[in-house]
Every structure is written in structure tokens, then in C-alpha cells.
């Protein structure tokens, strides 16, 4: 949740919500003929657009790292059982690692179009 103090307006919400609100304020200002205010709103919208992209990129990287760790664990588990070795339940690999819980999928966000 973000709390934003934009030009002439205070907006609160997620990065996606703030992006959409500032974009709409920019369009409204453009329609009213106030190009300076419109540019200020569009700049705020762009800021939150960049935040959304950074969050999506971080989530994607985290998801890839989790998949790699899981694949590595599966390879280690399968190689241990092929040798006839008995993997005991008390080892470190059994406890869930913090941050490996399922995370919500973040959908790609629309690009900011100028117009």
C-alpha cells in the first residue's frame, strides 16, 4: 500500500491503483487544456509504472530461484535414493525454507502510452 502526495491531490492504494489514478488525472487535465498539470500527473503515473515493473521483475526472479532450488533438491533426493542410500527425515532439507511459500502470481502490467 502506498500513500502518495501528487500535484493537488493525495492518493492512496497499490502501485497499480496509483498508476491508474494518476493516468486518469493526467487525461482529465489534458482534456481540460492544462498541459502542465497533465505532465505532472503523467510523471507520477510513470513513477508507479516503474515500481510495478520492478515488483514484477523481483517476483519473477524469486519464482525462478525457487524453481531452481526445488529442481536441485529433487536431483539430490533422486540421486540419494538411486544409490540405495536412506535419506533420514531429520536433515535440514526437510524443513521449509523461509520465503519458499507459494507466492501470488503478478500479471504483467500495461505499458504507459503517451497520447
TrEMBL record:
Region spans: Disordered: 56-115
Location of the DUF4167 domain: 2-56
Comp. bias intervals (Basic and acidic residues): 86-101
Highest taxon of source: Bacteria
Biased composition (Low complexity): 104-115
Identification of the protein by name: DUF4167 domain-containing protein
Source organism of this protein record: Acetobacter tropicalis
Classification of source organism: Bacteria, Pseudomonadati, Pseudomonadota, Alphaproteobacteria, Acetobacterales
